[in-house]
Amino acid sequence: MNIMVISAHPDLSRSRANRTLAKKLKEEKNLLYRDLYTEYPDWHIDAQKEQRLLLAYDRIVLQFPLYWYSCPPLLKKWFDDVFTFGWAYGTGGDRLRGKEFMIVTAAGGTAESYRSGGDNEFTISELLRPIQRTITKCNGTYLPVFVTYNADKGTDDYLAAEAERLSELIRRPIEALAH
Ligand SMILES: Cc1cc2nc3c(=O)[nH]c(=O)nc-3n(C[C@H](O)[C@H](O)[C@H](O)COP(=O)(O)O)c2cc1C
Fold first, then answer.
1. Total domains present in the chain
2. Rounded Cα distance, 41 and 60, in Å
3. pLDDT band at 179 (very low <50, low <70, confident <90, very high)
4. Which residues span the domain enclosing 93?
5. What are the pLDDT digits (tens) for 54-77?
6. Where is the Flavodoxin-like fold domain (predicted)?
7. Which residues have C-beta within 8 Å of that of residue 111, sequence separation ≥ 6?
8. Residue ID of nearest Cα to ligand 1 atom 4
9. CB 154 less than 6 A from any atom of ligand 1
10. For residues 80 and 64, what is the distance between their CA atoms, to the nearest angstrom?
């Protein structure tokens, strides 16, 4: 399975969680790792190149720190620029059909805080529904979300274990991911 990771962290030099996950992912075979903020410092996303790359990969992993219960803005712009009418959706727009998308995110909040009655009230899956629907509207397959909670306070050992957990499931077939 060919995997493309699209990472979007506004300041990887200050990152711990995403950097630890990224380091592990970069060791994987048949995996293209890209960082949007490095590739597009001027925010001019090359939509045709992005579309060509999307066609070439089976599974697309979107990796980002959770910012205000969503993705950082350059990844939002990536959706806006790349998932175009007639290509990704609308008349004749079914080029993403059958592609698998997996969100890999790190959150400052704890797992206990992301539930009804908890500090953050909702689960991460609930909060990421706009991204889920964007993908399913474009006929993509939305895989279960991978979340590293407590990302800021977590020890180096915890983050390393999270990276290991991610590398164990990144290639799992959909049947083994969704319960
Ligand atoms: C602008 C901003 C918004 C954030 N919003 C959230 C949030 O909505 N929920 C949350 O749990 N953590 C939030 N955080 C914490 C980040 O998710 C956390 O610092 C990050 O995932 C840690 O990963 P890193 O070490 O790779 O930067 C926010 C952080 C920043 C800077």
1. 1
2. 22
3. low
4. 3-177
5. 999 999 999 999 999 999 999 999
6. 1-168
7. 147, 149, 150
8. 67
9. no
10. 17
